[in-house]
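User: tokens in, sequence out, please.
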């Protein structure tokens, strides 16, 4: 089978590493997590289409375990968060639940932030705030992207009401630093009115470009908050 690349997932893993890097204080672990982030991107690139097609074989499961083994030596409790998201994504794929494997896998990539911070440094209150904003945005953005695809069944209300339920918490957390409000403005307008689905597959590339730009903006704001 020809692998279907998930550019968004690969980019999200890289961005999550960059975001975690801004809170690193144990420099010796920085290159280790960098190598792990590359390993994760290669694994996602290789296995995404096979997971969705429910065609994982023994070699694929060994590769999945190979991604997990290094964390035995750097264990922290927050590793259960991405582990849960990824296992749930695989389970959803094998249960033939459409759309949700992608959504959960992308959220799992974003949730690597907190365990990576814990390995490369120390988890502080600022990291918890960044984590909640990053994972909340990533989850809702994944819903939004899945909704926009013309052949997907995610309803626009999933996007709208998910963000409505998260927004009070995010606004409360943002009171600690006004710049964080900037990270909520554009998503709020867009998620409240997701617009129509894409008319054709030809528009998917443009959606991907805009998604990357929006993620970059959120990343810059959160990095500024992290180092300020």
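Assistant: Sequence out:
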């Amino acid at each position: 089978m020809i692998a279907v690349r998930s550019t968004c997932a690969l980019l999200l893993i890289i961005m999550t590493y960059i975001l975690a890097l801004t809170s690193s204080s144990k420099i010796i672990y920085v290159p280790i997590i960098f190598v792990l982030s590359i390993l994760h991107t290669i694994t996602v690139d290789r296995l995404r289409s096979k997971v969705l097609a429910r065609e994982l074989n023994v070699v694929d499961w060994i590769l999945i375990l190979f991604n997990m083994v290094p964390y035995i030596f750097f264990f922290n409790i927050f590793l259960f968060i991405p582990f849960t998201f990824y296992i749930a994504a695989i389970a959803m794929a094998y249960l033939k639940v459409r759309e949700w494997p992608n959504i959960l896998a992308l959220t799992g990539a974003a949730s690597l932030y907190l365990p990576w911070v814990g390995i490369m440094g120390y988890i502080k209150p600022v990291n918890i705030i960044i984590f909640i904003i990053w994972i909340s945005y990533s989850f809702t953005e994944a819903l939004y992207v899945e909704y926009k695809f013309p052949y997907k069944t995610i309803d626009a209300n999933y996007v709208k009401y998910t963000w409505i339920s998260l927004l009070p918490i995010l606004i409360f957390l943002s009171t600690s630093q006004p710049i964080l409000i900037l990270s909520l403005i554009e998503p709020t307008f867009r998620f409240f009115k997701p617009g129509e689905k894409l008319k054709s597959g030809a528009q998917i590339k443009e959606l991907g470009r805009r998604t990357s730009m929006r993620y970059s903006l959120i990343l810059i704001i959160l990095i500024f908050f992290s180092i300020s």
